[in-house]
Amino acid sequence: MPSFSWLLALYLAALTGNTDGAVARESTERNCSLTPPYLPSTAVNTSLQLEELRVQMRAMNISAYIIPATDAHLSEYIAPRDARLAFMTGFTGSAGTAVVTLNKAALWTDSRYWVQAERQMDCNWELEKDVSISSVAEWLISEVPKGDEIGFDPFLFSLKTQGDYNINLDSSDRSLKSITENLVDKVWKERPSVPPDNLTRLPDRVIQRTWQEKVEHIRTQMGDNPYKPTGLLLSALDETAWLFNMRGNDIPYNPFFYSYTLLTMDEIWLFLHVERVTEELKVYLNASCEGALCVQLKGYDTILDHLKNYVTRPGVKVWIGTEYTNYALYEVITPQDKLLTSSYSPVLTTKAVKDETEQQILRDAHVRDAVAVIQFLMWLEKTVPEGNATELTAAEYVDKCRSKQKDSRGPSFATISASGPNAALAHYSPTKETNRRLTVDEMYLVDSGGQYLDGTTDITRTVHWGKPTEMQKEAFTRVLMGNIEISRTIFPSGTRGVNMEMLGRRALWEVGLNYGHGTGHGVGNYFGVHEWPVGFQSNNIGFRAGMFTSIEPGYYKENDFGIRIEDVAVVVPVQTKYGNNYLTFDTVSLVPYDRKLIDMSLLSSEQLHWLNKYYETIRSLVGAELDNQGLHEEKDWMLRNTEPFAEIGSSASVSSSSLTLIALAVAMLHNIV
Amino acid sequence: MPSFSWLLALYLAALTGNTDGAVARESTERNCSLTPPYLPSTAVNTSLQLEELRVQMRAMNISAYIIPATDAHLSEYIAPRDARLAFMTGFTGSAGTAVVTLNKAALWTDSRYWVQAERQMDCNWELEKDVSISSVAEWLISEVPKGDEIGFDPFLFSLKTQGDYNINLDSSDRSLKSITENLVDKVWKERPSVPPDNLTRLPDRVIQRTWQEKVEHIRTQMGDNPYKPTGLLLSALDETAWLFNMRGNDIPYNPFFYSYTLLTMDEIWLFLHVERVTEELKVYLNASCEGALCVQLKGYDTILDHLKNYVTRPGVKVWIGTEYTNYALYEVITPQDKLLTSSYSPVLTTKAVKDETEQQILRDAHVRDAVAVIQFLMWLEKTVPEGNATELTAAEYVDKCRSKQKDSRGPSFATISASGPNAALAHYSPTKETNRRLTVDEMYLVDSGGQYLDGTTDITRTVHWGKPTEMQKEAFTRVLMGNIEISRTIFPSGTRGVNMEMLGRRALWEVGLNYGHGTGHGVGNYFGVHEWPVGFQSNNIGFRAGMFTSIEPGYYKENDFGIRIEDVAVVVPVQTKYGNNYLTFDTVSLVPYDRKLIDMSLLSSEQLHWLNKYYETIRSLVGAELDNQGLHEEKDWMLRNTEPFAEIGSSASVSSSSLTLIALAVAMLHNIV
């Protein structure tokens, strides 16, 4: 799945009782310039919550209040109880910032969501078609009187967000006021609660390193750090879950649980909802003691007090990763010399490289996942010509195929099932209103993934059941060439993805095509489907052997069709002729591409060779699993779709070998003549 | 020339009376652990200057003084009078930082220069094998007592350097003290003076935009800026020189002159050595009035006072480019709301895109430059087998060839003329001690460039006059493939070089080879040979049509040989099948590559095709110029060396067309049989 977060939209839609998606067909946008204003049925009346919020604002003596879209862990995907932006504005898009003053309210969001915002918001809200903090700040300066204060919840601001507001408000004589009690929560009477479910630990069979080993390993890194931190604060939800080999269900599709960890050289404090920890789990965590390998359980909401308390101890220094630590925690670590920062905590950088067991089980999960996707593609091939499949039934079916696989734990995000022009919206998920029947006349894109106890998957295939146009074939082939060029490239260990991702675009650029999303992101072992900081984005870390990333170039033709080819690959060492420490990718997603859409004449011989090797791997690994599961029809389908393509040899040897053949033929000719 | 600055070394060597280069053969490094210490003849006695500097330090009540390697304009190449680091330490390398305390002295430099430092420094100096500011700061914290101050010249610190020291000294209870009078200058009795020569203006034939037009254009950008700057401060030497179409001779090989400009919406203040401005130039600059298009000439040393004065005016806001503004100027622009920053000033970003005239004359200069290089290569081919050529005589000869070309203004940097193992040191320039005879048994690398009134050139060719090894051929061919892959790639306007430069490395990576320098840098019109911010470095701006950059992958085998293939190319628009606003490179360096070193079997058909098109261009453009200059022998040599290679067609069409031929032949065969 490409990296911007829209999957939340569906959940938020349910939350606000609003089932209208981003792309509904009805022309029902609000018109606030009429008297009385015209509001579509999809608009949410926000007068009451605004009125109540302003009561809270007056009590705090602030003239404006900023409401971001994230949670206290700066998560990419949030739980319904953190959907404060949607509650206040009615707008359920995944990206945006709202600001409320004593007499105005405004929402900032990007172009993907402008139509949706006009449909969901009432006339209490201005829509600002910008997303920069400088634009929010300019608006604040024009609306907030000099000398007044602007409130924000420091738990929902990253250090960078706070810094950016500060720079932009600098010397404007308006200042930020950090208010740790969230004002929206005070007026949100029906705010969803934290799930009551017990937390779980991973079974031993999917684990190589116990939590004790992980703790020791991280402590070694703390000891090795020249700045000698005494404590490490973990804020991102996957940091704590990874460290203790535990999982929860607090965020849709993401098996995380609300938590923080403060790991010192001789203590471990785990902040979470203690009532969700069973007695068995307490034994597992060694929770009844206070030694170096005892996990002391503390209430989730007590993190700030405990952290404050810890930094009053003499000689302590707390290490934080600035990308995932919120401003509330940062601002209590004073004075400055009690703080040590890096972009990412050592837990995130350690987790980025999978251990041998994690690598093996993540590969295994992808083999079973391939069986599910192959089953699904075969079903579509039969069902679509009969005229009964739609985007929604297809999405249901692929989920069902996955659910039958061993250790399945549901989808890893809301399936993107998009036909024809719907696929041109890279952030599309089908709704009742937008649902399209699948036909042999349209291209179809399906981007889906599964959670398994042993791994998280994410794969996109684009298919056509009829006769694709030349342009569709060319675009598809060039997207495939991009995927292959990244997959087969050889590079020194530590090379950053952002410096190689143009290989995914180059064949498209050659004919003036491109795509507007990222080229790939890390994936987890039963974790987030976007597992940062691995991937091809500019803030991602360099590739090392053992990292997993998606590779997903695409092409989108507005109002016509969309193409994306996404595979997950693991970074592996490769033997080169002269050098050491070189790496390449090994693709672990094992589903064939639509042959009908490949224009063989465009592929280089190296690309062709890669493709045939990849198909051999599918035949061997998925073939065995299909046999295992007794899926004979699926196996035949797979074999048909992985027939080797005719290969001529490498582009250099082509010339010489074919010239030899010609020479030979001509020579024979001459002899005979 | 790859982007780290060593050309200064030669000048500095002359300055300190030290002619020993970085790579002298004698094992004459100092040994400070002996009693008395052993010092080679190349070591400089620095006791006197250290003693005198410490007197100055005591007078200022500081416990340490930091001496960087740059000048007040943060120039990459500096004038002899700015070589304070060399004067204090004896060390003449181009990169380093020195720190003097009341009883110790230490130099930080990178691995390229460790041997050189051990040869040039006496035992007053510790050598710290690191270059990070955090390492300098750690040393300072251990050597400077708590509560004491560390002095620095704010004219020699960038904002970033000052900030980095500050962060690293933060909460250590040692603070930085900005001292605008340089303490080294106070003890440097024989400090070279500013050249007395008159400044010059460019002739009209090489200019499209007058300085008045440039001023208006920059003022328009100031007016369009939403932060409404009232003034623009220009600090980099090429900013002022470009704005006024003027040149000087203050820095070896770089036609710059010491200057700053403060451009406001209705005034122009030019800070320079006024005595070097002729009456004619004063008329040209309209220097006798004070209006919006009058240039008011102010003394170079009065910039700080005038700037301080300007910022006391109500409502002013000064725009600076942070990459080239020194801390001394930055710190007087207070309060903060009088300051507007961007990485680069609008002059640097405007200058980066050459106008039509600049493009044309820069292309023209490259045609004449190619004649000189071809003459040189032909001469080598004759002279080397006779056994009389050396690295030094070759360097002299190429300079001589260039000097005969129209509008020549000397070399644009010290020629890198390197045979065999010497070429493996990417920063090598020959000296008397290291000078190697050129033979048919060694590879030879020559990286050289010229200043012409109409343009600056920079080209590297690597040749072999005997029988290269298979490894040499493979490495050369893969370097060439890298050069071609960048040159022929098509990309959207605005793509950053750093995101494409791996194309220059990919063919090398494939077999585990790589190189350790940048892949290219902008070049100027009779300006710097490294003209930032254009190029492939991480802090360079995105490519736009009209920018010129070098493309220079390489490979270096320690103690054996070095390969670099460098061309200058201009970014040009390209028509694509589907999209608009796509660009590619058009190579303007026009000298053939050594055919003997190309392994044709490695090239793709696209690379081969590019190479043949390039050779066609050389034949047409350089052929005409050789005819013009009546250089018949050179023309024959050029034609021989640009014979087209056998081409088979694109890799895809290879297969089909050659298969057709075979089929045809076989069909004929059958008919006959």
Automatic annotation (TrEMBL), chains A, B:
Residues 50-165 form the Creatinase N-terminal domain. InterPro entries: Creatin/AminoP/Spt16_N, Creatinase/aminopeptidase-like, Creatinase_N, Pept_M24, Pept_M24B, Peptidase_M24_C, X-Pro_aminopeptidase_P. Its cofactor is Zn(2+). It is a lipid-anchor; GPI-anchor. Residues 1-21 form the signal peptide. Residues 581-645 form the Peptidase M24 C-terminal domain. Residues 361-571 form the Peptidase M24 domain. Its main location: membrane. One of its GO terms (molecular function) is metalloaminopeptidase activity. GO terms for cellular component: plasma membrane; side of membrane. Keywords: Aminopeptidase, Cell membrane, Glycoprotein, GPI-anchor, Hydrolase, Lipoprotein, Membrane, Metal-binding, Protease, Signal, Zinc. It holds the Pfam family Peptidase_M24. One of its GO terms (biological process) is proteolysis. The keyword Chloroplast does not apply. It catalyses: Release of any N-terminal amino acid, including proline, that is linked to proline, even from a dipeptide or tripeptide. It is found in: Cell membrane. Its EC number is 3.4.11.9. The keyword Zinc applies. It comes from the Eukaryota. Membrane-bound metalloprotease which catalyzes the removal of a penultimate prolyl residue from the N-termini of peptides, such as Arg-Pro-Pro. May play a role in the metabolism of the vasodilator bradykinin. Belongs to the peptidase M24B family. PANTHER family: XAA-PRO AMINOPEPTIDASE 1, XAA-PRO AMINOPEPTIDASE 2. Homotrimer. This is Xaa-Pro aminopeptidase 2. It comes from Maylandia zebra (zebra mbuna).
